[in-house]
């Protein structure tokens, strides 16, 4: 009653204060400039001065590789010729955004547009001796997305995380409370008198609870797709498979922890201990990469981290089971499920408490 609320409050405060939410962008300057004016360097300086975006000038190949690896969230490529003397000529800025998180994409686009205003109006406009010049007069901006698109919003980004979290959350409560009642009503004691071992009992309960867990996961997925009308890229059958593996782990975690509870109130007390940290550290609110190093280590020990990562790679990036971003996370979920089955089979009590 005292330690858990304090621990959760401190965890939230520490995550909010210490998380690195800064965005990174690469600037590529392929312009031909007469004179000392360097648009790429000027744009990097303008972005850095804004304080909301960390920018670095680099070659095109390196910038694209950084975008693919997730080291930067956007790449701005400046092309064209700029004559300091003579009639003004338009440059072209090709802004390529990762697009996974629409809020990040919007923030980068806003910062780049502001930086262009400073570079073009204050620097290039003055160098060309032009008055009342706007960025549109000198720079043509073309925005493209690696994932998602302009129609992609925050709900689309959060949908995979919410599907995984709510499936895990409700299945855990359903299993823990139901298994506690089985034990309190004497059903489990009668089962243990039969010629079956503990593992078989756990697997039997897992199949029974797992059916309802899968139906619950299916209902959440259908509501997100057909009622919220989220945008997605991947195969919905693969999404359902990943959600199903997640719920199998949740079922066995519920069975395992319910063996330590004497009543339903004690089961509910497991929620802030087990589920709240996963909601904070698994990528539902903050990305795992933005967390402090020691919290990232804890995050990698939580099954929901792998479930959310797999679902986002499937639904947002359109990856399949053959891609490492989905396959490795799916294998991790299977490993967690097997581990929880082992724990549950080892801790099932034969007597009614």
Q: Describe it for me?
A:
Strands 2-1-3-4-5 form a five-stranded mixed β-sheet, with helices on both faces. It contains 14 helices and five strands. The longest helix has 31 residues, at 154-184. The mean pLDDT is 84. It is α/β, with parallel strands linked by helices. Helix 6 (154-184) runs parallel beside helix 9 (236-258) and helix 8 (198-227) crosses helix 9.
Question: What order do the helices and strands come in, and which of them pair?
Answer:
Blueprint: H1 3-18, E1 23-33, H2 39-50, E2 53-57, H3 60-69, E3 74-82, E4 91-97, H4 102-127, H5 135-138, E5 139-145, H6 154-184, H7 187-192, H8 198-227, H9 236-258, H10 264-268, H11 270-281, H12 293-299, H13 303-315, H14 324-347
Parallel strand pairs: 1-2, 1-3, 4-5
Antiparallel strand pairs: 3-4
Question: Tags for this entry?
Answer:
353 residues; abc type-2 transporter like fold; 2 domains; 14 helices
Question: How would you briefly describe this protein structure?
Answer:
With 353 residues, the protein is of the alpha/beta class. It has 14 helices and 5 strands. It has a 5-stranded mixed sheet, with helices on both faces.
